[in-house]
Amino acid sequence: MTRSELGALGEQLAVDHLMAQGWAILARNWRCRYGELDVIVADPVARTVVFVEVKARSGDGFGGLAYAVPPEKVRRLRRLAGAWLGGQQAHWDEIRLDVITVRIGRRRAPEITHLQGVG
Q1: From 118's CA, which of 39, 58, 67, 96 has a CA 20 to 30 Å away?
Q2: Is the pLDDT of residue 10 over 70?
Q3: Which Pfam families does this UniProt record tie to the protein (predicted)?
């Protein structure tokens, strides 16, 4: 599996996980001049918009979950979230940044870890 195929599969598994939670997908792979947001979802019960960074891994070769999103990446994601929010007319009571890591192994089912409120 190529790196881009691994990333696409991981993102789809993350989206499936979020939809199973009852969350609505607002955008996928939203881009602007500052970068890209992987998934933007709405939690309708809490009236929260959630910006989700998805990290797909086939192992722990890059340090695992602890190193998935360093502080400089969190700052960039916040900036991107602000750019996306600036173009919206909807109002949310809360805004949050989450990270979903998906470990895809050859011999076992994918492992999904959802960290809420990382930034």
Answers
A1: 58
A2: yes
A3: UPF0102
Whose tokens are 């919206």? That residue is: 88
Q: Evaluate the CA torsion angle 69, 91, 88, 42 in order and state its sign.
A: positive
- pLDDT (tens digit per residue) in 14-68: 999 999 999 999 999 999 999 999 999 998 888 899 999 999 988 766 555 556 7
Pair 81, 95: CB distance under 8 Å: yes
Helix, strand or coil, per DSSP, at residue 18: helix
CATH class of 3-115: alpha beta
Q: 3-state DSSP call for residue 11?
A: helix
CA 8 to chain centre: 12
pTM for the whole structure: 0.90
